[in-house]
Amino acid sequence: MATYQEFIQQNEDRDGVRFSWNLWPSSRLEATRLVVPVSCLFTPLKERPDLPPVQYEPVLCSRANCKAVLNPLCQVDFRAKIWACNFCFQRNPFPPSYAGISEMNQPAELMPQFSTIEYIVQRGPPSPLVFLYVVDTCLEEEDLQALKESLQMSLSLLPPNALVGLITFGRMVQVHELSCEGIAKSYVFRGTKDLSSKQIQEMLGLTKPGTAGPQGRPAAPQEAAASCRFLQPVHRVDMNLTDLLGELQRDPWPVPQGKRPLRSTGVALSVAVGLLEGTFPNTGARVMLFIGGPPTQGPGMVVGDELKTPIRSWHDIQKDNARHLKKATKYYEALANRSAVNGHSIDIYACALDQTGLLEMKCLSNLTGGHIVMGDSFNTSLFKQTFQRVFSKDYNGDFRMAFGGVLEVKTSRELKVCGAIGPCVSLNSKGSCVSETEMGIGGTSQWKVCSLTPSTTLGLYFEVVNQHNAPIPQGGRGAIQFVTQYQHSNTQRRIRVTTIARNWADAQSQIQHIETSFDQEAAAVLMARLGVFRAESEEGPDVLRWLDRQLIRLCQKFGQFNKEDPSSFKLSESLSLYPQFMFHLRRSPFLQVFNNSPDESSYYRHHFVTQDLTQSLIMVQPILYSYSFHGPPEPVLLDSSSILPDRILLMDTFFQLVIYHGETIAQWRKARYQEMPEYENFKQLLQAPLDDAQEILQTRFPMPRYIDTEHGGSQARFLLSKVNPSQTHNNLYAWGQETGAPILTDDVSLQVFMDHLKKLAVSSSA
Amino acid sequence: MSQQGYVAAPPYSQAQPGMGGYQAGFGSGPTQPLYGHYGGPPQTFSTQPTGMMKSPVSSAAGMPPPPVSSQYNPNIQQNGTHPQRYPSSPAAAAAAYGPPPMSQYNSTASPGPPAAQQLSNQMNAMNLSSHGPMQGQALPTSPVTHQPYQMSAPPAIGQPRMPPGPQPSSPQMAPLQSPTANMGGMIRPFSGPPPPGAGGFQQPGLGSGGPGFQQLGPEGAGQGFQQPSLTGGVPGFQQPGLGVAGPPGYPQQPGQFGGHMAGPQPGMPGAFPGGQSAMAGPPQKKLDPESIPSITQIIEEDKVARGGHVYSTNIRGQVPPLVTTDFTVQDQGNASPRFIRCTTYSLPCTADLAKQCQVPMACIIKPLASVPKDETPLYLVNHGETGPIRCNRCKAYMCPYMQFVDGGRRFQCAFCNCVNEVPVFFFQHLDHMGRRVDFYERPELSLGSCEFVATLDYCKNNKPPNPPAYIFMIDVSYTNIKSGLVKLICEELKSLLEKLPREDGAENSVIKVGFVTYNKVLHFYNVKSALAQPQMMVVSDTAEMFVPLLDGFLVNYNESKAVIYNLLDQIPDMFADTSESETVFAPVIQAGVEAFKAAECSGKLFIFQSSMPTAEAPGKLKNRDDKKLVNTEKEKLLFQPQKAVYEQLSKDCVAQGCSVDLFLFPSQYVDLATMADVPSHTGGSVHKYSNFQVETDGEHFLRDLRKEVQKSIGFDAIMRVRTSTGFRATDFFGAIHMNNTTDIEMAALDCDQALTVEFKHDDTLSEETGAFIQCALLYTNISGQRRLRIHNLSLNCSTQLSELYKNCETDSLINFFAKSAYRAILNQPLKNVREILVNQTAHMLACYRKNCASPSAASQLVLPNSMKVFPVYMNSLMKTAPLVGSTELATDDRAYHRLSVMAMGVEDTQLLLYPRLIPLHNMDMNSEALPAPVRCSEESLADQGMFLLENGHAMFLWLGQASSPELIQNVFNVPSLAHLQANVCSLPELDNQLSKKIRSTISDLLEERPNSMKLVIVRQKDKPEILFRQFLVEDKGLHGGASYMDFLCYVYREIRQLLT
Q1: What integer pLDDT is reported at residue B95 of this predicted model?
Q2: Nearest CB to A186: which of B531, B535, B567?
Q3: What's the pLDDT score for residue B224?
Q4: Per the CB 3.0–4.6 Å rule, which of A369, B21, B618, B683 could disulfide with B226?
């Protein structure tokens, strides 16, 4: 086997799995001593162009509480046509269709390269995709116009048989009927009244008539028509809907001076959820919510309509001064859960300069796998392109989205699953492989992920349950199977099965091996997810303390040092970057709320727990590239010392893309050297980061905020706040050299952090 | 009808001279002078006899000629009060009389087969012709009406008729002559067996008649109408009485004849003795129906006396002409009777007195009544920002009764006597009379009614109101779609909306319009002018109704015309295949209220509903119709609305100035009492079209709709009635809502709606200063301006009951009684209410008899002149559907009737309780005028006649069995009655005079009345005739209820009991 690096890379490419430990400690006790739990980042729908789905049903273990899928790790008796489940050791006969099986003629699922395999299964009639637009009309004219255009554009991106629906809201909530000819019809709901799903369906005329109408009259075949009235195939109502969107007006109710427009987001969502619940339960559907401000009335209200009362800040929340916070959050959680149960996901596209209540509403997307996009205006390319990218297609021309996913985890008996962190909800499936300990969303071995993209990644946490005194035989392997059932965007039902195995290792004798099997990137992200998960419910400082503690323990466990001698402290290569990740994580907006509005925090956290490892790492520790005449572009340290006058810096924080021109470069640029033919090279230098940025912009979802700034520019703060403050006003003169730019901050630098860490790690009292 | 008048008159007049009554009358009254007026009568009488004699002649001459007029005079005189005219009127009078003759003809004609002939002819002719036929055919069948003429017709007639006896009516003069006695007998008390001797004529009859009716001094406390009471008492009155009469055949006739007999004065003297004795004698007598007071006659008399004149309101306590009379009002300090009418214009000074007479003190106010073109519209006074000048203490508004003192620097309030400073800008010097120099320049100082521009203080939230809005809310459930109603409405609205009411001189109406359709859910429409297509917004949240949009819902019609047209075109199609049969109702109203609330305006909802709201929603109703409750203590439940939701809704409506007009198209019970609850508290009206069919009821409904939409109307009104010290307003009736005891709130008030206000004493009134009433109405007019309308009225006060009785007005009285009785039935068993009505009637009359009438035989029924016909109305009222406990009447109809009366003005109640029955078969084609109406009794009808009956709510064209084919052809374009389609409801347009005239008559009537009426064509003896018959209010009621005659007897008995 090659290096662990390669192994890890290979595993990620093939199975979309990154484990914190690639050798597993063989007992519970040892596992806990490793500090970082056995856990993995799993990307269920990782794009695998090389993986053709097979067109048959998976073969399942016949034991009722196992139902594991036949996989390459199973032992097969080709003669007896029997296979043994590697999870429960049940011996199962092959189904008749496998009669021709032999060692030379193996089905795909038995081949080692198919540790991940996808089945296309026939389950009932194919159900169409449903897209329900929920549009805020309390927008500025310009914004509304831009949004309308985006929406109209999106119609052309939808597959013709997809069903679309439109709900608009302002002071009232309107559900537009799309099937009618002539007069445009809509059903209107009061924005202040919380309605039950049943009421909504009744009011929309979706319930089946309880008693047949009076005799003698033809009982209109309302049922079919009724459910379709609001959700129609795109190809049928294309024109209709385009017109409808075209005629869409701003909310006509006057907004008095000093007031916010009345925005009934809560009811609108409730109607949307109720509508889908009644018409397409358990079918893939996206509710796409477009808002230009906070909900200001009715259930789910985040702030009152008086402009003089500002929307809650972290300060208010800490002081328990946010009046509507709890109620609204509870309301949206209930909605999110209902929606999740039915497999419908909710996207939030919030474009406003002020906050829009994402803090309260985040669970809508978090629990249902929806997107959250935050921008300043609908009339920005950030929104327009991001929205367009929602409908991006893969190499097969299918949407990069899947619906109604159910992820099931099966473990071999030495392991149990503690929980998952990601855009999912628990399905409360208690099985033998469910641990008592909960990490993240636990207590279950099945999670519902209402919407999946190829990058959707869940953090899964496990527990080794094997007792210390019951050693696992040498060479034993633990196995985990991930079974993901979902509705493909081409309406097929599919099941993707990933089965992985890792070796057990005795922590006492093989600690080095275990150490080298440590995937510090994955571990950083997995720990970060745990931290973020905690941050949702705990006070910020507590979370930081917990993280620090974990880091110190890890260093104590794996560092090499002499007691009470910080200078002797050393970490092996496989852990060397880990403290740095933690340093940046501590400073990241995922854990620090200072300088961020509650909405922004929610937004950042949402993406952090959704994205795959690479993106997550970028979020934790932004990437900094340097462009100069001294050589080719190179990644440089995320450190204030990297900020030099003759450099152009490109920083990617995932959410922002900052191009920073050093002082000299900025002056040159101001002097317009780039326009002079003799300074063609300067022009190229200026262009290089732009091109690179463009590349990132092309692929990133959601589209990052693009910032072009220079030394001394106000927007330079984005860069300055991220770099390690190795030089500050406090130590600038002490160093005496002019390298980099001092950062005006009292934050500790990486150096100081590391010093402390070492000190604590070697301290016996810690 | 002149005829009646004619007939009846003589008796009266005779009575005066002849009877006890007469004596009394003369005795008491300054009779002689009056007599002068009456002089007429005597003459007439004299003429009459001659007339009778010569009747053939005169008649031949034709009614128009003078002689005729003379004959009529008597009628006129009866009015007594307006003697002047008589003398002056020769020419005019003649003209005036013109019509009456016609009627006479009719009556006469009726007997005869070919009406036409009779028409043209005169008495003679008539008699002749009539007789011929009469004898042969007509007699048996012919109704009673004609007598008078016949009387003129000599013996011959008489004889023939006699035989037919059973048909009392026909026998006319003839019987009189010989059997006069009989006649007399028939007629009540008097004649009984009397000696024919007296002039051989009716004298006896007359005599008898005389006693029956006393005319008191002309001026005097009204004319006494003494119904000859049998000493024996009532029973005598009844028909059985006939027996007495000589001619056995006659039995029924008597009544009628009695009246006619009147003519002969000569008889009178003689008659008396006989009469009286007779009365005592024969226990059983029958009243002569023609001899008892007749409304038609009174109306005609008033028309003659006061019609066309200018009525100046410069005198305190002046009794205005009857509502049925056309006159011009000149405001000289008191509000026009078009705005306010009182039950009495002379209030009793003390509560005791009031209690003693039991005549209610009330006024009927129609604050926004429309003013005819020839009268000056109300002046608009604008005091700028200070607003109208008011008394500091009682807040009464400046009016002609305020006394300026202290050189004009102060004024004393006429209502509370508080002395107030005159604001500087308003100061003006006084002249030597103590009157302000600018008296005539300031309407508020010189006029009884005027209007102020209201300042912001008088507006809601101190903001000027927005223009009002009309919202059309159409029930699009299965029934309405299927009946074609929805289409009909939509079509009509297109043209109707062009005619929204607007301020005089304004180019366009500022009223906004909005549209809603509904079944179980509501559909609002966005008809913003910017849209290419209307948009529909469905609101299913009926539990908590709201308006889904503001901008675009209420729009200016002219701006959004294209979109609205588009919408109206589409509505019928959109719901064409609906199968929804359930509807909601309360949420519909709620929606309207919310819309107005959102738009911050007031307005009116037009709701077109087909059925009882049974869908699950607030205000859901269930069938609670239970015929078993009729005639029980619980009958009131049928009239009471189901409370809760609707009660609150009314309040909301009123608070927002949202009036509700309800158009109901039920096919079964819809609990109208509840459904109409909101309209009846918000100044709205209810229209009901049972079993609606577009072909037959469409036009009728559209007429109503047009009227309702185009009516001039005020919104968001609040009214206060202030009175001078000593009495105050205590009770209010109308389509109103009251939050406290003084402020009358109305969501809207249109030009036809009236309030009845009852007053009670709380102190003694002074004869000297009189009593003042000020009615102040604050409202938003159709162009959205806030206005204050002030009506002032001064009344006399008196310690004399006779004054009071003299100044009573029957029409107003009955309006009050109707409303109070209709309200009472909500809380009391019907039986009680009826008893109360009769008792109070008896009491009022007994009090008069006891205190005001000159002494006369106890057996006489003496009626105050001003209340002569009160019993007819009262009887009619008691026979109205709400007050008649009959299981045959639909509960909804009764409730509907009850509610429709609550906001009626005097004109409307008068007409409702005494429909107009107009003979059309022998009209004078050359005359513009309509034939005079005849009495509402079967006896007025004639086999070969054609009659138009209308009461403001229903209209019938009655065709006698023997109508001439020619007539039928001319009117219906079919050869005979038999060819007439059963359900025709309009007349074909034919190019002949008769057809034209009838059609124009009908359309004029429809134009004139506040409500549309459905024209029902009824053939005599056809089944539908029964509907028609119930409007003949002098006859016995179909569903119970006494005939006029019986009622009179009953009242008489009651009075007697009270007196003893």
Answers
A1: 37
A2: B535
A3: 40
A4: B21
Of B524, B549, B581, the CB nearest to A213: B581
pLDDT at site A440: 93
What pLDDT score was predicted for residue B733? 92
Of A67 and B66, the one with more pLDDT: A67
Ramachandran assignment for A736, one of left (phi > 0), alpha (psi -120 to 50 degrees), beta (any other) = left
DSSP SS3 for A493: strand
**8-state DSSP, B658:** E
A219 Cβ under 8 Å from any chain B Cβ: yes
- Domains identified in chain A and CATH numbers: 4-56+115-122+401-507 (2.60.40.1670), 130-205+228-390 (3.40.50.410), 540-759 (3.40.20.10)
From CA B997, how far away is CA A260, in angstroms rounded? 67
B918: how many CB neighbours lie within 10 A of its CB?
21
Specify the CATH number of the domain B380-448.
2.30.30.380
Averaged over A139-148, what is the pLDDT? Answer: 94
B476-711 has which fold?
Rossmann fold (3.40.50)
Tell me which residue of A365, A398, A498, A501 sits closest to A15, measured CA to CA: A498
* Pairing mode of beta strands B744-750, B713-723: antiparallel
* Beta strand ranges found along B466-576 (DSSP E): 469-475, 512-518, 522-526, 535-539, 555-556
The Cα–Cα gap between B341 and B331 comes to 14
pLDDT at A766: 54
Percent of the residues in chain A that have a pLDDT greater than 90, as a whole number:
57
Nearest-Cα residue of chain A relative to residue B553: A252
- pLDDT mean over A155-184: 87
Using a CB–CB cutoff of 8 Å, tell me whether A235 touches chain B: no
In terms of DSSP bridges, do strands A232-233 and A163-169 run parallel, antiparallel, or are they unpaired?
antiparallel
C-alpha separations of A551 from A375, A567, A760, A762, B1044 in Å:
35, 18, 10, 13, 111
Give yes or no for residue A745 having a pLDDT over 60.
yes
Could you please state the CATH topology (level 3) that the domain comprising B915-1032 is classified under. Answer: Severin (3.40.20)
Which among A75, A284, A271, A254 has a CA at the least distance from the CA of A163?
A284
Q: What share of chain A in percent tops pLDDT 70?
A: 95
Parts of chain B with a pLDDT under 70: 1-290, 858
**Contact (Cβ atoms closer than 8 angstroms) between residue B284 and residue B235:** yes
Return the beta strands (E) in B781-812 as ranges: 786-798
Which residue in the set A177, A183, A203 is minimally distant from B540, CB to CB? A203
Which phi and psi angles does B297 have, rounded to 5°?
-65, -45
Q: Tell which phi-psi region holds residue A81, choosing left (phi > 0), alpha (psi between -120 and 50) or beta.
A: left
Domain ranges of chain B: 380-448, 476-711, 809-914+1039-1059, 915-1032
Whether residue B579 and residue A186 make contact (CB cut-off 8 A), yes or no, is no
Interface-testing mutation among A167, A169, A186, with chain B (most B C-beta atoms within 10 A): A186
pLDDT of A740:
65
CATH 3.50.50.60 fits domain B809-914+1039-1059: no
